[in-house]
């Protein structure tokens, strides 16, 4: 098949190099050039790929149609504006910008210059997330009332520019935007209120813990919790969990390569009249054990998914076969949710959103 995507990467650090690795596996894409102000990064550039020390040089390279922007967050706006003016299509890393005003600026310039513009929220193609989304879409636990998405780990470590707020550091911008985007894409209704606790547990300047509650118009309460300082003695400890509660069952999904099950009862539980169980504290019925045989388990749904599907969708969009899965308007809303989260945490108040 003829190569049809000609890509250049601006910012060749951790994520830029991850993109280069992914592109190697795509039979419809060519990596033409990479750019980094730190020439030491070029030892990781694949053979035959041009290297530039400035974005302007890369943008002047006429063999490139699409740029991937993977510089620190503070620089995204500047790079998006430059790239649009150089008439390159753009894939920008998350978080797209430092705030929603910057996103609006990006949307205006990309529209004006008529360039394609999307954001690398590849965690919409995470395996655990797609299993959870399947449970949601197929109503596998009935009418859902609660969803909990949590991520813990790495013993408090934050590094490099991630520890400076002025460069776009902190966990809300790092993992937060992924976890929030997943929930917003899963639950396509109005988001009514936002309540959040955001903390600096061991990092003085940037957030390293958050607990966010999103209440949606369809009655679902989604909770997102992230902690970088949930200590554990195992090496490389990183925990990912989902819990989804519905009126016909519960789904438990653990790990990025998920294990878990759907649990339901053999008949819908209702209020049972009659017999009252006495405890030393008086009569009780709450949290009683289910009668034998009442609890049934089922396997989680199977999904076939991988991060390269972000690029498959991009290529399909370039070829006119699909819409881009990730639209700037959605990411503007995401950024506005992040702002509501910060306001809620600052004043310890619930924020009316939509
Ligand atoms: N989608 C994801 O899962 C994911 C994962 C990690 C990082 N990211 C995002 O990718 C971006 C980069 O993060 P990272 O972890 O790779 O950081 P990094 O520090 O490893 O890499 C950034 C690179 O940009 C270079 N750079 C800085 N200023 C530059 C400039 N003016 N011109 C050209 N190059 C410049 C630096 O020298 C560095 O090599 C961030 O926006 C981050 O949020 C996304």
Automatic annotation (TrEMBL):
Tree of life domain: Bacteria
SUPFAM superfamilies (alphabetical): Glyceraldehyde-3-phosphate dehydrogenase-like, C-terminal domain, NAD(P)-binding Rossmann-fold domains
Domain Gfo/Idh/MocA-like oxidoreductase N-terminal, residue spans: 6-120
Start and end residues of each GFO/IDH/MocA-like oxidoreductase domain: 129-250
Gene3D superfamilies associated with the record: Dihydrodipicolinate Reductase, domain 2, NAD(P)-binding Rossmann-like Domain
Protein name: Gfo/Idh/MocA family oxidoreductase
Organism: Enterococcus hulanensis
